[in-house]
Design brief:
Layout lengths: L2 H8 E5 L7 E6 L10 H14 L6 E6 L10 H6 L3 H20 L4 E5 L2 E3 L1 H8 L2 E5 L3 E3 L10 H10 L2 H10 L3 E2 H7 L4 E3 L4 H13 L3 H15 L3 H16 L2 H12 L8
Parallel strand pairs: 2-3, 3-4, 4-6, 5-7, 6-9
Antiparallel strand pairs: 1-2, 7-8
Helix pairs in contact: 1-2, 2-4, 5-6, 6-7, 10-11
Length: 266
């Protein structure tokens, strides 16, 4: 099997997903393994997302086939090669994928319909937005196996309050979708039969906005988070000034003044 076919077998990519032009769904396709992040699946996701980052795609939705969103790393694969060099390489590849999601110009939405555990919870947390079915559950359960979920702690500590994140990490206990929304891990919770419609609604709302503002805004949002407040304001002001010079912003402001809908180019 060549590399292209291997990617296609491990992730399913659909354009204009959910009936929304510009939206691409990327579905992890290891249902028999609860979409555990094997080396091959990590590579397939990395390839798919890196390629999509270079396209005119507006929004990307990551989901999972079968009963689970993602059960984390493939433990059987990890246990088969117990060496420090192997584990360092594996977690570096996972980190590269997570950072790719954050650095993409397009917003990335997690569509969580089932369990999201360990690195699967990390994946949901790293996505820019997340919509979950009310049957979904989340946990960073490595500590139950004697392995603290160190890499998942990075996005958890940046999305949840410190105490909520640390409780999840130290206990390994599951939280339900309502609790995940309350703690800031996800954005929306809906019944399972309304999940796709809710994802479509959120994606369509983003696609209705000018691509320049969305892309610049996502980049600025994450960069300023890591800065002191003065540097953050300096970067934000520069970003906003440059954004204001975009044709779409000039048109949007003029449309507001004229009390008419903006005539943005799609």
């Amino acid at each position: 099997m060549n590399a292209e076919n291997r990617v296609a077998s491990l992730v399913e990519i659909a354009h204009d997903a959910y009936g929304v032009p510009g939206v691409v769904s990327v579905t992890m396709n290891r249902p028999e393994a609860f979409n555990a992040l094997s080396e091959a699946l990590l590579d397939a996701l990395q390839t798919a997302l890196a390629d999509l980052a270079q396209t005119s795609t507006r929004v990307i939705v990551i989901g999972g086939a079968g009963r689970a969103f993602c059960a984390g790393h493939d433990l059987k694969e990890m246990r088969a090669e117990p060496s420090l060099a192997y584990y360092q390489s594996l977690f570096a590849r996972c980190t590269k994928l997570m950072l790719t999601i954050q650095r993409m110009p397009q917003p990335v939405i997690a569509r969580v319909h089932g369990i999201a555990t360990a690195a699967g919870c990390q994946l949901a947390a790293m996505c820019d937005l997340a919509v979950a079915a009310d049957t979904a559950r989340f946990a960073v359960s490595g500590v139950n196996l004697g392995l603290f979920c160190a890499t998942p702690s990075v996005p958890l500590s940046r999305n949840l309050s410190r105490k909520a994140a640390l409780e999840m990490l130290l206990t390994g206990d599951f939280i339900d979708a309502v609790g995940a929304k309350r703690e800031g891990l996800i954005n929306r919770v809906v019944p399972m039969d309304a999940l796709d419609a809710e994802v479509a609604k959120l994606a369509a709302s983003i696609c209705a906005k000018p691509v320049e503002a969305v892309s610049a805004g996502k980049g600025l949002f994450y960069r300023q988070l890591e800065m002191g407040i003065e540097a953050a304001y300096q970067l934000a002001g520069q970003t906003m000034a440059c954004n204001m010079m975009d044709e779409s912003a000039l048109e949007g402001v003029q449309a507001f003044i004229d009390k008419r809908p903006p005539g943005w180019k799609r």
